[in-house]
Structures are given as structure tokens and as C-alpha cells.
Design goal:
With about 575 residues, the protein is of the alpha/beta class. Helix content is about 30%, strand content about 30%. It has 3 domains: about 260 residues, Ribonuclease Z/Hydroxyacylglutathione hydrolase-like (Metallo-beta-lactamase, Chain A), CATH 3.60.15; about 150 residues, Rossmann fold (3-Layer(aba) Sandwich); about 140 residues, Pnp Oxidase, Chain A (Roll). The protein has an 8-stranded mixed β-sheet. The chain has a 7-stranded antiparallel β-sheet with strand order 23-22-26-29-30-25-24. A 5-stranded mixed β-sheet has the order 11-12-13-14-15. It is globular and about 80 Å long. The chain binds MU-OXO-diiron.
Length: about 575
Amino acid sequence: MVVATAAPTQKRLTMQVEAIAADTTAIRSLDWDRDRFDIEFGLQNGTTYNSFLVRGDKIALVDTSHEKFRQLYLDTLKGEIDPANIDYLVISHTEPDHSGLVRDVLELAPNATVVGAKVAIQFLENLIHRPFDRLVVKNGDTLDLGNGHVLEFVNAPNLHWPDTIFSYDRHTQVMFTCDAFGMHYCSDATYDEDLHKIEPDFRFYYECLMAPNARSVISAMKRMKKLGDITTIATGHGPLLRHHVGELTGRYWNWSNEKAQAETTVAVFYISDYGYSDRLSQAIAHGITKTGVAVEMTDLKIADPQEVHEIVARSAGIVLGTPPASGDVSKATLDAVSTIFAAAKDKQIVGIFECYGGDDEPIDPLVTKFRDLGIKNGFDPIRITETPTEATYQLCEESGTDMAQLLTRKDAIKKMKALDSDLDKALGRLSGGLYIITAQKGEVAGGMLASWVSQASFKPLGLTIAVAKDRAIESLMQVGDRFVLNVLEEGNYQHLMKHFLKRFPPGADRFEGVNTQPTNNGSPILADALAYLECTVVSRMDCSDHWIVYSSVDNGRVSNPEARTAVHHRKVGNHY
Ligand code: FEO
């Protein structure tokens, strides 16, 4: 049921209220047009912020909403209950998209007890600046709301901040998981009826938010398995999981196990809620995981030195966000940073980024300190001189990918040489044309040489392209994205091939010195191409180390009808 709508001049914000189980109501804030999340993740289908009421003898509100929904959300909440009667406000995670209205709710419910993990309560103190009753819970703790509703709490640190808990209602078998198992997908459908429609967003969300924390996903899921049956996963974003709980949680389990088995790990140290540290670190981590290298994220605000020591010792690379130089810097942070330097070894590589927190420790002394330890750069230090933009996040993601490729290059060459040579040569007899994909999304652009391209359908006109998972352009080829496939011309392609085969530094402009023209779909055409095709990504298939990207072809043109397509003849099939 849609119950309220914002003024039509604003972007579309609506509310939905739905009974999802006995005495349990979902209050969903539908943000239809949000096209960016944490800036770095483009969204095709908006998002939702889900909050829940559980009415036993006592009333619990699980999470709130984004502050942009203040009036709509509070009006809707008041339509359901008198907020003064809320006994418990359960905080699954303190990021502002879920906790943005905690202060407002507590003003209406001054007697409510805030329930959360120890870290969440600490974060909240800084967020709402007012006294509140609190109940710190840890894994296995329960809260009896009466009338059969007993909430059991599950520790789920790092999903997506260290503060996360899940809450499982033993009576209704509904599990409230906030970010975990969610997706940025806005629709009137409360549940996951249409798997086909939601699965690209479910996957993309996993890759962006959860993949850097794959080991934490596995740990949380092991704890989940000790609970009873779960009939509904009440997520904080997107539709609730009810029709495909087994299938979708199974995917989380498999994806996370694949990632956790990676032989190489990079430790990423950030400081939650300080400048842009968490978002920048996520973008770097996402770039790393694209290569198959695992990531271990650690929040320096609450890190335990012993744990930091162990993480550094088992990692091949270290990424460090500049800690605050002074002011509100905790002893835990200072100890953790000292431990990183004490545990680091000269075989490791390092990447340092500024957090733009207003009081960053200067980056150069940190760089020098690592250099003095004999530790080489995995990427050039990322200096942030203004509020991060899409281009900054692209730079971070590509820096992460570069660092991980540096760590795995030797192994990749070894594996390449180990393949059966006859098979290898036979496979090399497969040939394809030569193409350059060009894509522009907002202020971020990319270009890549491709040859694994094939027409795939007539109606609609469609083609597939295999794109290695660690390619930068992969981020610009999500479902719904548009790009141009430039067809290279026989005898007139060497200069373009040479240019796009170059190893570009992270964030570099791929089109500098290249003659381009604009298209209808926003991506550039290469002026020297024989033909171009404007495409829209329809779906993506996971094929081990590549994505097969199926796209419809919306428009196209040939510049020289007499010329032929350049062909790529290879000798071996185990690399391009
Ligand atoms: Fe949906 Fe991490 O907040």
C-alpha cells in the first residue's frame, strides 16, 4: 500500500507499509530516483530504506530511514503507532541511510531503549548528541518482547560496518539483516517474487558492499545456521527475501567462499565515520576483489592490536587510509597504526590514501615510513584535495585493481605457462574481430580493446562481449549501462590498438590524443573506426574470470562500406 508521496517537484519519494508476519510491519521508504549510492556505485533502479515494527507486549522498531524521508517517515510511523509507545529501537547498523532519523524518533519516544552492538552505541553517541537509554547486545543475546516474539541477536561485523547485528524473531522466523542480503532496487513489490528481475542488482550490490568482506559474510552465515528456520529476510534495502531465501542466501555463501579461498589477501585499514575513509576504502577494496584477490577490511577506530598484527602478517598487501593527525583520535587507532608499521614486512606492498577528514595525518611521512621499511608502493599515494567525486572513486577502484594485479602477476604468468601446449595452440585457432569498447557514465569514461565479441540475437539485435573481471571498463557495463562498440578497420587499426593496449595509470584519461565524436547514448565514437554500434547492457553472465555481457544494439553506422573488419589471429588460447 502506498501511503504518502512527496511534492511532485522533488524526486519521487514514497512510503509503503506492509504487514509481513504476525505483529510485524514493514515501513519502507522508496527512493525511486536515487542514482548514486556512496557516490561510487551507480544505481539503475533507485533504492529503499526499510524499517520494521514488531508489536509484542512490548514494541520494537528495527532501524529508521534516511533523513530525506523525515516528514514522510515520521508521518507514516505515527499512522501506525503512537511513537511514545516504542519500547525498543533496534539499531542494526548506524550508517545514516538507516539511522538518519534515530534522533527524531527518540524525540518522539524519549523512553525507548536503544538496542545495538557496543560499537553501534558508541557511533550513535557521536551521531545524536543526546542521552539515551541503551542495551548493548552481543551474539546469542535475546530480547523478549512478549506474545511469543523473542528477538535473538547475531553478530555480523563488517556487513557493512563493524557495528552490524542481525535480529531474528523466533516466533515469526523473520530475520532483520539491514545491509546484508539487500539490493538497491526500488519497486512496489515488497518481496523477491521475480528473481530474474532483481538478480543483477542483488549481484552488483554483493560485489560492491559484501565481496570485500567475504570472510565476515561466511562467519555471520555460520552463526545464522544455528538459528531456527528463516522464512523471511527483512533487508534494509530493496525487496524482502521470502520466495528465494534459500537460493539467494546460497549465492552469498558460494560467492563468499570463492572469494575467501583466494590465495592472496590485501589488508585494508580505514577509519569509520572519518572524512571519506570508509567510502574510499570500499572503492579500493572493490577494485582489489575484481581481480580475485581477497580483502580484509579493518576499522582502525576499534581495531584490536593483536588482530591487526595477525591480519598484516597474513596479507601480501596493505592499504591504509590516513588517520587523523590530532584531535579526536582514539588510543585504539594510534595503537593500531603503530602495530601496522611494526608488523609490516619488506615483501609486502602498500597503498596509502588520504581520507579528506579535515585533520588527516600528512601522507608523505607515512609514505616515507613504509619506504624506510623497504616496502614498495602498490599504487601511488592517493591525495584528495577536494570532496571526492565519481572520478576520485574511479581512481580508487583502479588503484586497488592495479595493486592486486601487481601481487598476482607472477602467478598468472606461471599458470599461463603450465597449460597443455597442444590444447593451448588449438584454442588459439579461434579468432575474432578487433573492437574497442568506449563507455561514459557521468564524469567517468573508459575504453578497452576487445576481440571476444559475437552477435547473439536478431530480436532484439544483440551481441555478447566477454570482459575480464578485473578490467576497469567492467564497472561501466552494468545492466542498463550504455556503451559503444567501435569496429576497427583492416589495415587501419594499429595506432588505436597500440593506444588502448597501453597500461593506463589509475584514473588516467583513456581518450587523450584520440579523435572522438559524440553519440546519442553519451559514449564516444572513435573517429577512425570502421563502424560503431550503440549498445545497452541487458544481462551479464558470470563465467569464471570473465563476465559475458549481453547487450542490445540500438543504433549503428559504417563509415566505409568497402572496408573490412580487422581480425585478431592468435597463436595460443591461454591469453589474449
Ligand atoms: Fe545501507 Fe551501510 O548502509
